[in-house]
Amino acid sequence: xxxxxxALVTGGSRGIGLACAIELAKAGCDIIINDICDxxxxxxxxxxxxxxxANAYFYSFDVSNDEAVKENVDKMIAEHGKIDILLNxxxxxxxxxxxxxxxxxxxxxxxxxxTSAYCVTHAVIKYMMKARQxxxxxxxxxxxxxxxPGQANYSASKAxxxxxxxxxxxxxxxxxxxxxxxxxxxxxxxxxxxxxNIDEYLKAIPMKRLGTPEDIAxxxxxxxxxxxxxxxxxxxxxxGLII
Length: 243
Ligand code: NAP
Hints:
Elements: E1 6-9, H1 15-26, E2 30-35, H2 39-50, E3 56-60, H3 66-80, E4 85-88, H4 103-131, E5 134-139, H5 142-146, H6 152-172, E6 177-184, H7 199-204, H8 213-226, E7 234-237
Parallel strand pairs: 1-2, 1-4, 2-3, 4-5, 5-6, 6-7
The structure holds NADP nicotinamide-adenine-dinucleotide phosphate.
């Protein structure tokens, strides 16, 4: 019997992160989800993952707090022995036009979306190096590749993730650790619930629908489990939004 892989999904209690956790669980992985919420709020997510036949564990911490990240990753390794797959998914927005954007708005989004991925990866990768294998996936965005008015902080954080992805792919490829980014377009989650009139967005999408979290999860599963030779890529999953 082959040993089950263990995947850590940050911001995994809902939305895209939860869909990815479920897809990986269905494919035979055990799942560690992190989120900033408490255990009671994360319980329905854990139950959904367990219903797929996987072991599922929850660790509550803020991914942008370097000390908390180190402490919790070491605890995960002590309790579960390894992390084979890391999905840096936690993220947030605080939109505003550049002229009105203050430093707090800028720094908060950079810290939660970009610095967090550096912190978690830094804590996990030494264990992947010892295991001589690993797959890291960073949840970027089409706006990190193409920009978006009103999202200077968010776009810069997501562009930063692409740079981080490509650099780490070059640094760790020889250790059999692959690093890729997924760049979703408009996906139906709490994050996009406030978009208002979606008809304008649909006009720009050749496939004429918003994406679902499951659309993203399929690509994450491919990168995590179905390929051994894709690294350093930023894959757009956006229904053809930008061609
Ligand atoms: P979501 O529904 O808001 O989920 C994000 C999750 O991350 C939430 O559970 C949130 O917890 C958690 N989180 C936020 N800050 C955290 C922190 N400091 N530490 C730990 N967990 C934290 O968003 P989503 O739409 O699923 O997005 C998931 C990822 O995809 C994000 O990185 C987002 O930027 C990216 N993305 C989304 C879209 C889209 O159209 N939805 C498009 C492109 C990229 P709380 O709710 O408790 O804060």
